[in-house]
Amino acid sequence: MGRKIVIDPVTRIEGHGKVVVNLDDANHVIDARLHVVEFRGYERFVQGHPYWEAPVLLQRICGICFVSHHLAGAKTLDDIIGSRIGSDYAIGPTAEKMRRLGHYAQMLQSHATAYFYLVVPEMLFGMDAPPEQRNVLGLIEADPSLVRRVVALRKWGQELIQAVFGKRMHGLLAVPGGVQKCLTVDERDRFVNGDDTIPSLAQVMEYAADGLELFRRFHAEHRDEVDTFAPVPALSMCLVGDDGVVDYYHGRIRVVDQDKRVVEEFDYHDYLDHIAEAVEPWSYMKFPFLKRLGRQAGSVRVGSLARLNVSPTMSTKHAADAAEEFHAYTGGRANDKTLHTNWARTIEIVHAAEVIEQLLHDPDILRHDALVASPPERAWTGEGIGVVEAPRGTLLHHYRADREGPVTFANLIVATTQNNEVLNRTVAAVAEQYLDGCADITEGMMNAVEVGIRAYDPCLSCATHALGQMPLVVSVHGPDGALLAERARS
Description:
single chain; four-stranded mixed β-sheet; 16 strands; five-stranded antiparallel β-sheet; alpha+beta; 2 domains; 490 residues
């Protein structure tokens, strides 16, 4: 009995998924699920290819966070050939700093895209604003000056990615044991001083701060709306360095609870001892969880909000000041407010800009000793695991390879997969908050569910993989299956 609401697909995210909300006869929510309807076959596609091709092939899973896939794959290859971090043949500081420079450039432009293009229009115009207004075109009409700064910020990040990787998308920097290039003095100076096509580094720092200030103002004016939108408690997980502060390129995996107590910490090379992946018949996306705590209690949140929950501070000044304010708001407890993900994201934009500033002034990135000597044959391990913090959260690559070259095994656990359980909890929380007891479907109700999902900036193409486009159709069916109402948008 009851009826079913279907949102197919969820819009303004990377990839395709649908939401199904089941209601009883009184229109109360029974359950709500995010169904990921894409299928990813990349772990199979890469098998048989030479292992040195894996970071180049697997970064094509995504056109947004390809840098993260490339670097996770590169770290995996370092392990395979015997250049594991901490070993006698580990990559040197020049190569690591070049990789970090590209990584933070992606963090900057990816977060700026997700926040300003997908989130800010709804902040300014409201979740129930007309669809033709709550988008970047509406933002251009309302605040063209802000949009010009946003476009310049994103362009600067993309240009830096191109300078580091050779292309704006799916470039090549990392090779087993190092990187294949460093910056020239002219390249470095262009990003510091700016030119006719890109802003200066000083301007980028200002533009990065725009997002944080914008959230502060919005939060001050709409505190109840922001704070009460679908709070979802969960464990938080990310990489941390030896000082316990989040490290986006390398570290140990740390998981904390709502009181920020460490419930699990381990070397990511041992992930199989700590993490299992469940499956459900209604989704192609897996459900990772901590083995010790079980499927429900052991599911984690990753990404910007999780990283701010785990990390006591940030490694750069302005981001650290902003993080202190962020932590104080919840009295030192973990933050479970879904829309505060956008707050955390703006802090990370500032942090990325500050780290890039440090790296651009580091003389190591102008050196040309980025490659180590090939490790001796005895250093070969044939198996590697690489983990980085992608914009959306913790990303893991795991390969095995034959000594002759072919990849024999590959497993990927991407950030959106890590968030699968908490994403579904968020969908259910939003459905109960906005749809429970309502007989009629409104545009605002439909969009509220999507707002909850978009807070995680999920990449379903990473979590699975497919091609094609689908319209958004929401249908309400009666107990006998008859169509009662339907709304659609292309």
